[in-house]
């Protein structure tokens, strides 16, 4: 009987000890800030947001634990209580084209031990220009091609998201082609018939423009070679008598 009571007391004491030594997890904090801020830029005053004065914040040895990340992107300025950037934060490297980019960190306080979850929402800035896969596109089109025929140019890609992604295309003004853009497909549409005898080659400039402020753009040169069609009857230069 005595052994059972002793075992039960031991289990209770062990459980209480574990509970006491476990950090108390508090509610989440959340900050939003643009990518590419300079090192040392202020994200927010975490001491104030935790309701602590600087003396208490410092005496409780506030520190950051990074969750699931190899790199430490932020730190705490113990003199001001500010959460600051400690390294360059590039949204595209971290999250690619995902619509939401969130870094998770833990702020740990001692005496008593507390853990505060912090979500850092990295906002996209227009730091990338649209780019075509190639700088130069070669096309060969027969002069017999019908009006309205379409020829794919490929699309431009932008590492940014949303409004900072590619928004529109502009084709250099010319007499033969107009631009057709539908369902993320970009094509040259033949507006007027080609005539190799009058024009063997056509050079066009295609520009992709994003919606950022200021806007960024990328270009590709399209070189069209007009191929001959058997559309002319042979003519003698002289009639022999």
What does this 3D model show about the protein?
The chain is mainly beta and 241 residues long. Helix content is 15%, strand content 41%. Strands 1-7-6-3 form a four-stranded mixed beta sheet, with no helix packed on it. It has a four-stranded mixed beta sheet with strand order 9-16-15-12, with no helix packed on it. The protein is rod-shaped and about 90 Å long. It starts with a helix and ends in a 14-residue tail after the last strand.
Largest sheet entry: 4 strands, mixed
Poorly predicted runs are: 8-25
Describe the global form: rod-shaped
Terminal-residue CA separation? 139 Å
Topology order in helix (H) and strand (E) letters? HEEHHEEEHEEEEEEEEEEE
Instruction: Output the number of helix runs.
Output: 4
CATH C-level category of the largest domain: Mainly Beta
Strand content: 35-45%
Strand count: 16
Per CATH, the architecture of the largest domain is: Sandwich
Radius of gyration: 33 Å
Name some characteristics of this structure.
four-stranded mixed beta sheet; 4 helices; 241 residues; mainly beta; Immunoglobulin-like; single chain
Describe the structure in brief.
The chain has 241 residues and is mainly beta. Helices cover 15% and strands 41% of the residues.
């Amino acid at each position: 009987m005595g052994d059972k009571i002793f075992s039960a007391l031991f289990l209770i004491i062990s459980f209480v000890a574990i509970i006491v030594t476990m950090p108390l997890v508090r509610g989440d904090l959340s900050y939003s800030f643009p990518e590419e801020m300079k090192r040392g830029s202020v994200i927010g005053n975490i001491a104030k947001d935790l309701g602590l004065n600087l003396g208490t914040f410092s005496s409780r040895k506030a520190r950051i634990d990074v969750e699931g990340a190899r790199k430490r992107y932020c730190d705490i300025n113990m003199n001001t209580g500010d959460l600051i950037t400690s390294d360059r934060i590039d949204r595209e490297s971290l999250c690619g084209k995902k619509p939401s980019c969130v870094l998770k960190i833990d702020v740990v306080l001692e005496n008593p031990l507390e853990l505060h979850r912090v979500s850092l929402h990295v906002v996209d800035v227009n730091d990338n220009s649209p780019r075509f896969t190639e700088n130069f596109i070669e096309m060969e089109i027969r002069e017999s091609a019908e009006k309205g025929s379409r020829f794919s140019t490929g699309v431009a890609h932008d590492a940014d998201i949303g409004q900072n992604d590619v928004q529109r295309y502009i084709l250099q003004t010319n007499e033969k082609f107009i631009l057709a853009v539908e369902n993320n497909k970009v094509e040259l549409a033949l507006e007027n018939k080609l005539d190799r005898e009058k024009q063997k080659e056509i050079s066009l400039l295609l520009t992709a423009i994003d919606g950022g402020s200021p806007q960024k753009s990328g270009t590709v040169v399209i070189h069209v070679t007009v191929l001959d069609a058997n559309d002319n009857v042979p003519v003698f230069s002289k009639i022999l008598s």
